[in-house]
Write a structure and sequence with these properties.
Blueprint: H1 9-20, E1 39-43, E2 46-49, E3 54-57, H2 60-63, H3 72-82, H4 96-108, E4 115-119, H5 122-139, E5 147-151, H6 160-164, H7 169-172, E6 183-185, H8 199-216, E7 221-226, E8 230-231, E9 237-238, H9 242-253, E10 257-261, E11 288-291, E12 303-307, H10 309-313, H11 334-349, H12 352-366, E13 376-382, E14 385-390, H13 399-409, E15 412-413, E16 420-423, H14 431-452
Parallel strand pairs: 3-15, 5-6, 5-7, 7-10, 10-11
Antiparallel strand pairs: 1-2, 2-3, 4-12, 8-9, 11-12, 13-14, 14-16
Length: 453
């Protein structure tokens, strides 16, 4: 490397960032060897750095950007709202965007869930759901119900409550002394199938383990929390919808709440607006449903928890201590709610769910090459999420970082999870962009594995 060359604009911003900014989910020392990208602007599916290089955003900027960067419809809605009300506290006040968003979300659940509590990020939404569940049981005179169940390899966030129901060692181990640990049950991950087993067989086997835990801890469990259909952050583990049906039945049988963490899988990612809609012809609804990420179209921090009339009424009392005394300064922010309303408009006006079925099929066809690659296993897809694993025998501990770095040189932004390569692109991805993406990933994989050997 020529250390005497003039520093580019990107180099200058990267240098300043490394001195001033502590980046998330990052061992900062690794940036001595792996790139930090200084962005300038974005449009559609593309991010542009300060030197004019572009990168196809195949992961929707951490799964949030549904309809492309700088979307004109969302932009216009935000500009209009900006001149009306940018923020006001929601304690003691209300405003049209937060009311309309709550009403429209409830309607999307056919009013099974009708009360929405707002926050700013996914982990905060999980904290809310856990606290609401515990507090509900206490208000009902069942204060022993204060433990939680999560799936093996689950991820629900990195605040202390969310970490308690997360089963990812690298995030959790350092903070173990601070955490109230949950019960961990077998994941219905279809990759766990033994010879001759179907995806539904794996789900059935996992449900038996869940019931064993519910029996053993009867009277102590407040809630089961899960990501419906796809456990995202631990490698896009996909499972059969029959597990959701069985889990709902078991929660009802043992008087346990079901918390659906749809932060990553909601907003159309799995083929329906809510992933739980795929659980049987009549569907099942959880007691709490958490949303974040895509709900604001990738524009502003927003999260929320929806719950039932029954749970809401358990808090409705003259006694202040029976109320849900939880708050965030930016709860129900009018700008964030406006971005979410514009996002829902696009879903409705552009028939996004139907169009995504066509795009999902095109994704399947574009990655057909992965089906015949001897280095690849477990090619899988659920709606707008496609993933495959690189066989352990041909990877190294640095595979994910090396792939990320090489893909950037091919104008592709992909962040593998361990040896899992996945795409979760914006719903506005064009046919040409999909071809660029597939070809770029295939070429990157060849180069990285070739360099390893």
């Amino acid at each position: 490397m020529n250390t005497n060359r003039p520093k580019s604009i990107s180099d200058q911003w990267v240098e300043r960032s490394l001195k001033a900014v502590w980046h998330p989910c990052t061992q900062m020392k690794h940036h001595e060897r792996f790139p930090l990208i200084a962005l300038s602007h974005a449009k559609g599916s593309w991010l542009y750095d300060q030197d004019g290089h572009r990168y196809l955003d195949a992961i929707s900027s951490w799964w949030v950007n549904l309809f492309g960067h700088s979307n004109p419809y969302i932009n216009a809605a935000l500009k209009k709202q900006l001149d009306q009300l940018e923020h006001a506290m929601l304690a003691g006040f209300t405003h049209p965007p937060v009311v309309e968003l709550s009403e429209r979300l409830s309607a999307l659940t056919s009013h099974h869930l009708g009360h929405t509590f707002f926050a700013s990020d996914g982990a905060s939404a999980i904290e809310i759901a856990l606290k609401m569940s515990f507090h509900y049981w206490r208000n009902m005179g069942l204060s022993d119900k204060k433990e939680f169940i999560c799936l093996k390899n689950s991820y629900h966030g990195e605040t202390l409550g969310a970490l308690a129901v997360t089963d990812v060692a690298i995030f959790k181990d350092a903070y173990g002394p601070l955490i109230r640990h949950a019960h961990i049950v077998t994941s219905p991950d279809a990759r766990n199938a033994t010879a001759g087993e179907t995806n539904e067989d794996v789900a059935t086997r996992s449900l038996k383990d869940l019931e064993t835990t519910l029996q053993k801890c009867q009277g102590k469990i407040a809630a089961l929390i899960l990501e419906p259909l796809v456990q995202c952050a631990t490698g896009m583990a996909m499972y059969d919808a029959s597990y959701l049906i069985g889990a709902r039945q078991l929660c009802d049988k043992y008087q346990v709440h079901l918390i659906a963490d749809e932060i990553a899988v909601g907003c159309g990612r799995t083929g329906t607006f809510f992933a739980v809609e795929q659980a049987g012809d009549s569907g099942i609804w959880p007691d709490f449903l958490a949303l974040s990420k895509g709900i604001s179209g990738g524009y502003l921090p927003l999260s929320l928890v929806m719950t039932t009339e029954k749970i809401y009424q358990a808090f409705y009392d003259e006694d202040t201590s029976r109320g849900f005394l939880h708050s965030h300064s930016y709860t129900g922010n009018p700008l964030a709610c406006t971005a979410a309303l514009a996002t829902l408009d696009i879903f409705a006006n552009d028939q996004v769910i139907e169009k995504n079925k066509v795009l999902a099929k095109a994704m399947t066809e574009s990655f057909a090459w992965a089906q015949n690659d001897s280095n690849i296993e477990h090619l899988r897809q659920k709606g707008m999420i496609l993933a495959f694993d690189i066989k352990e025998s041909v990877t190294t501990s640095s595979f994910a970082k090396e792939f990320f770095k090489e893909a950037l040189s091919k104008e592709i932004l992909v962040r593998p999870i361990g040896r899992t390569i996945y795409i979760m692109p914006p719903y506005t991805l064009s046919t040409d962009e999909l071809t660029i993406l597939s070809n770029g990933i295939e070429k990157t994989l060849r180069l990285v594995l070739q360099n390893k050997s």
